[in-house]
């Protein structure tokens, strides 16, 4: 599973600090052997930075990614992996069923 960060939201001022990142919008990808991919998007709220504040201009993609991954519970990451694997398996599905006149 691979993550990309699409956008970060911030509070202009919070607790005497400026441009405090509060949320990270992300997309997670999984690829199969044929190079086909599936993705899931989400937003993760970050905890208040406390004494380990990083200035906006000093934030790198690597730092933001560590914040994202450290803020996501392991169970959420496992659920995402399972969802992406299911979506990949559905790409290979050759049979289906349903009614064309019904949206259910």
If you had to describe this structure to a student in words, what would you say it looks like?
There is one protein chain. The protein is α+β, with helices and mostly antiparallel strands and 104 residues long. It has one domain (2-91). It has helices at residues 61-71, 74-91; strands spanning 2-14, 17-31, 37-45. It has a three-stranded antiparallel beta sheet with strand order 1-2-3. A hairpin with a 5-residue loop joins β2 and β3 (37-45). The mean pLDDT is 92.
What distance lies between the first and last C-alpha atoms, to the nearest angstrom? Answer: 31 Å
Helix fraction bin = 25-40%
Which regions contain 5 or more consecutive residues with pLDDT less than 50?
Answer: none
Mean pLDDT: 92
Instruction: Give the overall shape.
Output: elongated
Q: Structural class, from helix and strand content?
A: alpha+beta
The count of helical stretches stands at 2
* Proportion of residues in extended strands: 35-45%
Please give the order of strands in the largest beta sheet: 1-2-3
Helix-strand sequence: EEEHH
Q: Please report the total strand number as a whole number.
A: 3
Computed over alpha carbons, the radius of gyration is: 18 Å
Number of domains: 1
Sketch the major β-sheet.
3 strands, antiparallel
How would the blueprint of this fold be written?
Elements: E1 2-14, E2 17-31, E3 37-45, H1 61-71, H2 74-91
Antiparallel strand pairs: 1-2, 2-3
Key words describing this protein structure:
alpha+beta
Task: Quickly describe the structure.
The protein has 104 residues and is of the alpha+beta class. It contains 2 helices and 3 strands.
